[in-house]
């Protein structure tokens, strides 16, 4: 008896329901398919490919320690799985359920192809979420559109137990693999890109739960303090299990751990929205807005935003962090998204696309729905809030440390004066002439926003 375990965004050995189900007294082919359709859809950004390469190497190493190995193929996912099934004479395939429209179509095609040949596909829930999409629903709807009641039910949901990695994995002979990719072969990577793989992910968790999570409630918005977990790429690639994380954080307990678990619920929340409304990846979810400035008219502003040259230091610092690390602090994501969609009045899809080009944690559910939230087309109950970049900067970077870290042109300025360089005069102003003037006047941006939303 042979099973194929198809890894997708669950690149780990600990707490892995498909592997656990398949590994039970059977031989297993641990398989990853580099799906050419993902590349064709433009989703294969260099930063994520590099992180993926780390994850696959680490997964292979973990399997080898247990007597197995990873089989890698590339091509059409359904074709490649079917080929491996035939080569190994496997009778079943186990994989994690996923939420996007693309993933659903792929699962459907795979199921049909396998069943036509007398084989079975087993989909497993709670591999990439703590609570499965659709497991909790409000009366009269297939999903929650508001987070607070979702979170109440999510918190009351019993979690399955988390389990360890298998002791051994037996892989049948005769199934060939391509060579594993390496990040060294890739170009265009962010210089400060994090390392991928379950081994580093698990070390991070241990360190975070020992020292870090306790201060999370107070410090998660602190831009210079950088006091969040940075688990997002690991959750995206599944080197960490959400179920296991929730269990371990709850065991630590306290306000920090509670606040952290709440953020994990936000992740599940967006996934259950996308699972039920798959067009929300591209279409306005709740409120339709179609008076965005055209990309052509706004092209200079969009470029300045992408390059971190808007003249608003905190916006520029966050955009430069994104380019340098392939990651951005959540507060930075909020205020740069507000700036693009509300102050510059540019369609959220333009910003979401740029984020997906660079973010190592770039994730259709989290990225698109957070963009919609900030743009006022999504699930935010205050869709017309506009984040003022100067107020935000003074609140979340009071001494200007974060701005000076990312904007060398402003490194010579002291204290919070760094947030409003346009107010400087004389020699002070001359010293920073490499830094641009603001590309937009905030009151004018606000007036344009109100006109477009019919609120003046
Ligand atoms: P922590 O604060 O330590 O939180 C722990 C985990 O909770 C995160 O790793 C993440 O999985 C989850 N989480 C935290 N905040 C959110 C949130 N608002 N929504 C959903 N899940 C959350 N997150 C992504 O994983 N991928 C994206 O592509 C992405 N795009 C975003 C785009 C915008 C415009 C905004 C405003 C937010 C986006 N987020 C995205 C959510 C959030 O900013 C990141 O998850 C978070 O900054 C990652 O850092 P962390 O792991 O240190 O988070």
Automatic annotation (TrEMBL):
For activity, the cofactor(s) needed are: FAD
According to its UniProt entry, the protein's GO biological process terms are: nucleobase-containing compound metabolic process; response to light stimulus; response to stress
**GO MF term set:** deoxyribodipyrimidine photo-lyase activity; DNA binding; FAD binding
Source organism (scientific name): Streptomyces griseoviridis
Please verify whether the record's keywords include Flavoprotein. yes
Q: Which family does it belong to?
A: Belongs to the DNA photolyase family.
Cite the Photolyase/cryptochrome alpha/beta domain residue spans from the record. 1-129
Q: List residue numbers at the site (Electron transfer via tryptophanyl radical).
A: 292, 348, 371
Which SUPFAM superfamilies would you find in this protein's record? Cryptochrome/photolyase FAD-binding domain, Cryptochrome/photolyase, N-terminal domain
Q: What is the protein name given in its UniProt record?
A: Deoxyribodipyrimidine photo-lyase
- Which amino acid positions bind FAD, per UniProt? 216, 228-232, 260, 361-363
Q: Which PROSITE patterns match?
A: DNA_PHOTOLYASES_1_1, DNA_PHOTOLYASES_1_2, PHR_CRY_ALPHA_BETA
Cofactor info, note text: Binds 1 FAD per subunit.
- Which keywords are on file for this protein? Chromophore, FAD, Flavoprotein, Lyase
> Per the record's keyword annotation, is Phosphoprotein included, yes or no?
no
